[in-house]
From TrEMBL, chain A:
This is Branched-chain amino acid ABC transporter permease. It is a multi-pass membrane protein. Belongs to the binding-protein-dependent transport system permease family. LivHM subfamily. It comes from Pseudotabrizicola alkalilacus. It is found in: Cell membrane. The keyword GTP-binding does not apply. One of its GO terms (cellular component) is plasma membrane. Keywords: Amino-acid transport, Cell membrane, Membrane, Transmembrane, Transmembrane helix, Transport.
TrEMBL record, chain B:
InterPro entries: ABC_transp_permease, LivM-like. One of its GO terms (cellular component) is plasma membrane. The keyword Membrane applies. Coiled coil: none annotated. One of its GO terms (molecular function) is branched-chain amino acid transmembrane transporter activity. It comes from Pseudotabrizicola alkalilacus. Its main location: membrane. It is found in: Cell membrane. Keywords: Cell membrane, Membrane, Transmembrane, Transmembrane helix. The chain crosses the membrane at residues 6-25, 37-63, 83-105, 112-130, 161-179, 249-270, 282-302. This is Branched-chain amino acid ABC transporter permease. The keyword Thylakoid does not apply. It holds the Pfam family BPD_transp_2. It is a multi-pass membrane protein.
UniProtKB/TrEMBL annotation, chain C:
This is ABC transporter ATP-binding protein. Residues 5-234 form the ABC transporter domain. One of its GO terms (molecular function) is ATP binding. SUPFAM superfamilies: P-loop containing nucleoside triphosphate hydrolases. It comes from Pseudotabrizicola alkalilacus. GO terms for cellular component: plasma membrane. InterPro entries: AAA+_ATPase, ABC_AA/LPS_Transport, ABC_transporter-like_ATP-bd, BCA_ABC_TP_C, P-loop_NTPase.
Length: 292, 314, 239
């Protein structure tokens, strides 16, 4: 294969990566923006989504397309419930103290990982894609499902966007983000907003995982990379800023896909993590807002 | 009895009991105890930064690994003997903490946590990337020549225990002295109120950097000793897990107490050891302990004890 | 008399707000200098510039003739400019002894316990060494704050609203304490309680809208028509 088509393939792969990353990272960003909580267990919500998708498609006696569709709805719902529970039982009782919540979500990370290991096992298992057709390009064939993933991610993100900007619940969430105390004074039930936000964040990660799981297999340790990449995206895009997160996801996803094709993926990750650290050190104001 | 006598009495008693343990306990537990003492030195270092100075780092695995590879690489590639290699490990831990501190200490709170996490992650990936030098994922076994210290073969039980004990005792007494010294008071002042401390004439950046370097020296010494005593150097020790472990020990035993890190390491080690007899769900134990501690006992065992009864406990 | 601290054209704006706007100021050696002005006149911002807590936008500050405009706050403290906080800012979880010892050891005192005892005796807190600072009454915490300033043995002591929250009996003791410090220590006193300022100060500077409205002895300030208009009439009655 000559260079041009090779680059095209890299860009296609990068776009798929960016789409899934954007979904995951927007979940993390939303949680930080509204609740000021850095959720280290976010990658485990992603992992849970993938593992649940495997269970659902394996045990439901439906044809693949229908079973997968069921997973896309049920898995995020279950993860959302787990997240809401974690918020009510743990984070709320810590009064959302930034440092304590990080320690607590690290604990949550281990607990969820262990739960997956115990009930699902240490094997990586595939989920059958809902459909199998390939698009034949002049140089190579490309999975139609991967393009569908991009489309689905765009649709879900658009839905989140409309939800945040056009609905009353979204308005309440944004009001709470701007000023928690004032929101409370105006009769907004902040507890419920927080639980809902945490649930929505988890659901987005789970949805991203259900999309990706026919391409990558479900494994109990699969949450690590999405967590790290989401961190990178959210910090570079500006914590709490959804628009910044989307742009950064596109840039990081694409460049990661392209760089990984031509260079060692390890080197790419080293550069990315160092970049995040340096951004936080030297340009914190644009990233942590007025708080840092 | 004066507070001073009580303080020294308690700490010397703990050391005496540990020394005696090697003659009283079966060999399985003696080896465990050697491991716990080295990990406790790591946790003591973490405690200097987090417990006393208020620097909540998520990157201490980097300093531990710096010590371990700072010791192991010269033994492997340059055929250094154990003593200079051990010193190289100690200094590597301190130097790494100094470099990270110069950058990370420009931030605070949550940013500091993420920056240290990212540096540690970059360090771990670098170990993998340079696998022709570091052995990558598989790591390497420390050569026999690097495990003979002052004529004692550290691969055998008694010298290994004694080496761990000497390191632990030195670390403990040094820590006790440090936190009761004027500088120890300044570290605590920085934790309690940075702005007030600045207006008493202290440079927050310098105090925090010094504390972090001290913390890194402890972590480096522990990493070097761990590699040398147990004969293996590997990239697993640079993963985030090894940044969480000392935090867990310190939170359990009591942040800002001299004996807390050891108590936490001891309890956590045996908690995992015992539960793994019934279930392999050890990750769950670690996770539940973290959540339980921040929720119900943020001061840890000795911190709570100090608040309730033993106000003189350092 | 020679100036210990001199400020020329000192300026600090916050966005559109001219918090401190071209202030010339001199603190003479050994005096008690009062700084007054209505709320929002820029008093706290001004002393924050002097002590280095806020960076200067333009203007020059000298300490005994040496330019300290860009010297970091902690080094100004080392050079003998001490600042006590308006909102009590002791270390609530440390003992009274540790609180004062932190100040004494900062300047390298040879005998820290003796220095602590001396500073505590000066403010009348002897015997409370081992109490946890956060458990003291508010008035005692204010006095502890002053003791921390004294233990620095400063050449200039900036007191930001030191009598706020003190009982009237405590205020008399406080006035005697301040008088006993001069002329070894030069005092800059920000104070709302007009009786205290008029009683203690050798000279008074009045700030209004970030600018110097008047400088003079208490009598001159009392008689100054501009000051009366801007400030004394209403606020004096209230304070």
């Amino acid at each position: 294969m000559s260079f041009g088509p090779f680059l095209l393939l890299a860009v296609l792969e990068g776009t798929v990566m960016a789409a899934v990353l954007a979904l995951t990272a927007v979940g993390l960003s939303l949680v930080f923006g509204v609740m000021r909580v850095v959720n280290v267990a976010h990658g485990e919500f992603y992992m849970l989504g993938a593992v649940l998708a495997w269970f659902i498609t394996y045990y439901l006696p439906f044809p693949p397309a229908l079973a997968w569709l069921a997973a896309l709805i049920i898995a995020p719902l279950i993860v959302a419930m787990i997240a809401a529970l974690a918020d009510t039982l743990v984070l709320k009782r810590l009064n959302y103290d930034p440092e304590a919540t990080i320690v607590a979500t690290i604990g949550l990370l281990y607990m969820l990982q262990q739960a997956a290991l115990t009930f699902y096992g240490s094997d990586a298992r595939p989920v059958v894609a809902p459909f199998q057709w390939r698009i034949q390009l002049p140089w190579f064939g490309y999975s139609g499902y991967k393009l569908f993933v991009v489309l689905a991610a765009v649709v879900i993100l658009a839905a989140v966007w409309l939800f945040m900007t056009r609905t009353k619940v979204g308005l309440v969430m944004r009001a709470t983000q701007v000023d928690r105390d004032t929101a409370q004074a105006f009769g907004i039930n902040v507890d419920r907003v927080y639980a809902g936000t945490f649930a929505l964040g988890g659901a987005l990660a789970a949805a991203a995982a259900v999309l990706i799981v026919p391409i990558q297999q479900a494994h109990y340790l699969m949450g690590h990379d999405p967590l790290l990449l989401s961190f990178i995206v959210v910090i570079i895009g500006g914590l709490g800023s959804i628009r910044g997160t989307l742009v950064a996801a596109l840039v990081i996803g694409l460049s990661d896909g392209v760089i990984s094709m031509f260079f060692s993926p390890t080197l790419a990750k080293i550069i990315a993590t160092l970049l995040v650290a340096l951004v936080l050190v030297f340009r914190p104001q644009g990233l942590f807002g007025a708080r840092a | 009895m004066t507070d001073r006598a009580k303080v020294w009495g308690v700490h010397l008693l703990v050391l005496a009991a540990l020394f005696a343990a090697q003659f009283l306990l079966p060999s399985y537990h003696v080896t465990n105890l050697a491991r716990i003492m080295v990990l406790a030195v790591f946790a003591m270092g973490y405690n200097i930064a987090f417990g006393y100075t208020g620097l909540l780092s998520l990157g201490h695995a980097l300093f531990f690994a710096a010590g371990m590879y700072g010791m192991g690489l010269p033994v492997w590639h340059l055929e250094w003997l154990s003593l200079p290699a051990l010193i190289a490990g100690l200094l590597a831990g301190g130097a790494m903490a100094g470099v990270v501190g110069l950058l990370a200490l420009r931030t605070a709170g949550v940013s500091f946590m993420i920056v240290t996490l990212m540096f540690a992650q970059a360090g771990y990936l670098t170990l993998l990337y340079l696998n022709s030098w570091t052995g990558g994922d598989e790591g390497f076994v420390v050569a026999r020549s690097g495990r003979v210290l002052l004529g004692f073969d550290l691969a055998t039980d008694t010298p290994r225990f004694m080496a761990a004990f000497v390191l632990f005792a030195a670390g403990l007494l040094l820590c006790l002295w440090l936190v009761r010294s004027p500088f120890g008071r300044v570290m605590v002042a920085m934790r309690e109120n940075e702005e007030r401390s600045r207006m008493l004439g202290y440079d927050p950046f310098r105090v925090k950097l010094t504390a972090l370097i001290l913390s890194g020296l402890y972590a480096g010494a522990a990493g070097a000793a761990y590699g040398m005593l147990f004969g293996y150097v590997g990239a697993t020790f640079a993963t985030i897990q090894y940044s969480i472990l000392p935090m867990l020990y310190v939170l359990l035993g009591g942040a800002g107490t001299v004996l807390g890190p050891f108590l936490g390491a001891l309890l956590m080690f045996y908690l995992i050891d015992i539960t793994s007899g019934y279930t392999d769900a050890y990750l769950f134990v670690v996770g539940a302990a973290l959540v339980g501690l921040v929720l119900f006992a943020p001061k840890g065992i000795l911190g709570t004890l100090r608040e309730r009864a033993l106000r003189w406990l350092p | 008399m020679a100036a210990v601290i001199e400020a020329k054209g000192l300026t600090r704006h916050f966005g559109g707000l001219r918090a401190v706007d071209g202030v010339d100021f001199s603190l003479e050696h050994g005096e008690i200098h009062g700084l007054i002005g209505p709320n929002g006149a820029g008093k706290t911002t001004f002393v924050s510039l002097l002590s280095g807590r806020i960076p200067v936008q333009s203007g020059v500050i000298t300490l005994n003739g040496e330019d300290i405009t860009h010297l970091p706050a902690h080094l100004r403290v080392r050079k003998g400019v001490a600042y006590t906080f308006q909102i009590t800012s002791v270390y609530p979880r440390l003992s009274v002894f540790d609180n004062v010892a932190l100040a004494a050891q900062s300047r390298g005192a040879a005998d820290v316990p003796a220095e602590v005892a001396r500073a505590l005796a000066q403010v009348g807190l002897t015997g409370l060494d081992l109490s946890i600072a956060g458990t003291l009454s508010y008035g005692h915490q204010r006095l502890l704050e002053v003791a921390m300033g004294l233990a620095l043995r400063p050449s200039v002591l900036i007191l930001d609203e030191p009598t706020q929250g003190l009982a009237s009996g405590e205020i008399d003791g406080f006035k005697a304490l301040i008088r006993s410090l001069v002329p070894q220590t030069t005092i800059l006193l920000i104070e709302h309680n007009m009786d205290v300022v008029m009683d203690l100060a050798d000279r008074i500077t009045v700030l209004n809208f970030g600018q110097v409205l008047a400088v003079g002895t208490p009598d001159e300030i009392r008689r100054n028509r501009a000051v009366q208009d801007a400030y004394l009439g209403g606020d004096h009655a209230a304070g």
